[in-house]
Specification:
This protein is an all-alpha fold and about 220 residues long. Helix content is about 80%, strand content about 0%. Helix 1 crosses helix 5, helix 5 packs antiparallel against helix 9 and helix 6 runs antiparallel to helix 7.
Length: about 220
């Protein structure tokens, strides 16, 4: 059985995952379009920077975010100078960290979808005097819907499963930053394996559902 604390952690996790995914779709769409079509010299460096969270230990990213956003970091000092609270150990800080850590899981599927577009269709729209934004929303977006669906599912699921980054930047504050993965860690640390089994089984079921959804999504291309 799930406890009230478990449901609070689940609710907070879903809120974090939903907001993170929404923000990432807004950020990732123009970024993916640029990466798909630019030939500038910095493309390789930008691709590597976007993909960095895939290979970087999450605790490393969390540590540097903690330094950057903390009272002695330049972002933290700037926020303090205008009377705002610093971001570490707050939900907003957790959101910032989640956006950065899940960035490649949203950018890369959209970038792949944009790269796979038939450029003749884009050129035909231009020939018909469609404006760039009209071409993007009327041609590119509809043809890239599978990439966007994959990005949405992966971004949401990856945020739900985060641990290292959220623990480093958010800590373990009940109702504020204690997400499901941290709640599970608490149970294991206190040797409450029965409660840990309930949450772990829920996460396994969620992960399996995500993979199954992606399988059917990609099969329907």
């Amino acid at each position: 059985m799930l406890s009230p604390e478990d449901w609070t952690a689940i609710s907070l996790t879903l809120k974090l995952a939903g907001l993170t995914t929404g923000i990432l779709l807004v950020i990732a769409t123009p970024l993916a379009w640029h990466l798909a079509y630019t030939q500038r010299w910095w493309k390789a460096s930008l691709n590597a920077l976007v993909a960095l969270p895939l290979v970087l230990p999450p605790t490393v990213l969390g540590f540097y975010l903690l330094i950057l956003l903390g009272p002695k970091g330049w972002v933290g000092q700037s926020m303090k100078s205008i009377g705002l609270d610093t971001l570490p150990f707050s939900f907003t800080g957790l959101l910032v960290a989640s956006v950065l850590y899940s960035l490649p899981f949203v950018v890369q599927p959209i970038q792949a979808a944009f790269s796979g577009l038939d450029r003749r269709l884009l050129e035909a729209a231009t020939t018909l005097q469609a404006r760039p934004l009209d071409t993007f929303f009327s041609v590119a977006l509809p043809l890239s819907k599978h990439g966007f669906l994959t990005a949405t599912v992966l971004g949401f699921a990856h945020t739900v499963g985060e641990f290292g980054v959220v623990l480093m930047i958010g800590g373990n504050i009940s109702g504020e930053t204690r997400v499901v993965s941290v709640q599970l860690y608490d149970y294991v640390e206190s040797m409450n394996y029965q409660a840990a089994h309930s949450l772990a089984a829920l996460l396994v079921l969620f992960a399996f559902s995500v993979l199954l959804s992606l399988y059917y999504l990609n099969r329907g291309k």
